User: Fold this.
Amino acid sequence: MPGPRTTTLWRPTGPEELALVEASGWTAWPPRLPEQPIFYPVLNEDYAVRIARDWNVPASGSGYVTRFEVDAGFLERYPVRQAGGETILELWVPAEELAEFNRHIVGRIEVVPEFHARA
Assistant:
């Protein structure tokens, strides 16, 4: 019997958040910090690469793009937000809903490209 229909999402992240994802067994995103009321996965890899490379690397020395699958039916509650240009698309998940969001991840969170500051 096939599993649920899924949607592929990406998340640009720095080394601290990635370490917490690894500690979860690559199955969950860590709770948001008090100053982070929204968890925002993105809908295309190119946008995630730009954030990881152009923002995370200068901020922390490394940037990672993760890819993961989420039950598509569950995601219908979150409208797609256009956060700038035509391809800058995000989902805004309120911090208090992140544990439930994590329960709808199908499979493992994986690192696809990664970027590091030049020594």
